[in-house]
Amino acid sequence: MSNAPLHGVKVVELGVWVAGPAVTGLFADWGADVLKVEPPAGDPQRAVFGALGVADQVGVPPFEIDNRGKRSVVLDLRSDDDLATMMSLISEADIFVTNVRPAGLQRLGLDAETLTKKFPRLIYGIITGYGLEGPDVDKAGYDIGAFWARSGLAHTTVAPDEMPPAIRSGQGDHTTGMSLASGVMAALFDRERTGKGRIVSTSLLRTGIYTIGWDFGVYLRFGKRQSTRPRHRNPAPQVNCYRCADGRAFWLLGLEGDRHWPGLLTAIDRTDLAAVENFKNARARAINTEELITVLDAHFATQDYAHWTSRFDKEEVWWAPLNSIPEAINDPQVIASGAFINMTPQPGEAPYRAVNSPVDFDGYTPTYGPVPNLGEHTPKWD
User: Fold this and answer.
1) 18 and 98 part of one domain
2) Are residues 171 and 246 in the same domain?
3) Which keywords, in A-to-Z order, does the entry hold (predicted)?
4) Which of 152, 191, 279, 297 is the most exposed place for a label (fewest CB within 10 A)?
């Protein structure tokens, strides 16, 4: 018998693009049997590169990461027969997950109220852009709109006089997907005690706000917040990034300013700074942060990355590499953490690596993939 934590759990996904499929992608990695229901044209994420003007790319990693290990069945839910097949699949499922807008689900009779009334043991998980109540329930969200822009996250990430950059593709979707996955798991556990399913919902908007809950909490309590400053005005110069002579950069992690200050000065051979009045304690360094950052910038530019980081380690200065994606891929600690896995390719596909999901279970090693072709499987439970 499989020792997968979700072995035997049946999941129906009616998901598109990223957020919904991300939830069930985690479940598939954890051993659940996931039936991905797609329209005849397929989940549009399959063709995301084409939508971006890249039509000849072999493989679609943004689709692969969230859909490996699932079964793909094609149903035209505008057809009465296919809709009946869908209901049959859901009748035997433990979990139903969707990120289709509520109005569309209601037209099909796949809304939360209808399905949980018809199937009382069903865990119904839904991700929306803005929530299940309010004037914008059915408004298009995407993570760049709901998670990033409307939540205040984008505005808070940059200085007040700057316009923010776009979020990285899928970042808000994956964060929100993990939120729903945790809620669905709690509901599944609760069903073991009560025998009853329930509706579990989250939104891109709510999750985005939760990620900056410290800032919101301070504003709700005190009516103010500290605005984001440019790097050269960071009020915590010991928790800042600096570039070395060879172009590589690191991030200092001296959160406890006065405790970490002497070790840093020893590591960089600048104990003379301890006697500078403007740098005498954490408060003084925060007030005079631009002056200190200018001094540190000039000093770190005199030696390469290997020199400074070896000095940090010798003096137990806390720091982290400021990695690019290629640098992270080759970082020994990133590799050791299990961040990347070998995929199970489709017949005829060359072997390739992909990003792992972020949770491990001792004694269980998933089989990653393959990624199903559109309509590869029969719409029935084995």
Assistant:
1) yes
2) no
3) Transferase
4) 297
pTM of the model: 0.95
> What are the pLDDT digits (tens) for 342-377?
999 999 999 999 999 999 999 999 999 899 999 999
Segments forming the whole domain that contains residue 57: 8-211+337-353
Residues 272 and 304 reside in one and the same domain: yes
235 plus 302 within the same structural domain:
yes
Residue 287 in any domain: the answer is yes
Tokens 């020199």 found at = 307
Q: Give 69-125 pLDDT, tens digit per residue.
A: 999 999 999 999 999 999 999 999 999 999 999 999 999 999 999 999 999 999 999
3-class SS string, the chain? CCCCCCCCCEEEEECCCCHHHHHHHHHHHCCCEEEEEECCCCCHHHHHHHHCCCCCCCCCHHHHHHHCCCEEEECCCCCHHHHHHHHHHHHCCCEEEECCCHHHHHHHCCCHHHHHHHCCCCEEEEEECCCCCCCCCCCCCHHHHHHHHHCCHHHHHCCCCCCCCCCCCCHHHHHHHHHHHHHHHHHHHHHHHHCCCCEEEEEHHHHHHHHCHHHHHHHHHHCCCCCCCCHHHCCCCCCCEEECCCCCEEEECCCCHHHHHHHHHHHCCCHHHHHCHHHCCHHHHHHCHHHHHHHHHHHHCCCCHHHHHHHHHHCCCCEEECCCHHHHHCCHHHHHCCCEEECCCCCCCCCCEEECCCCCECCECCCCCCCCCCCCCCCCCC
Does residue 359 belong to any structural domain of this protein? no
Q: Do 234 and 240 touch, CB atoms closer than 8 A?
A: yes
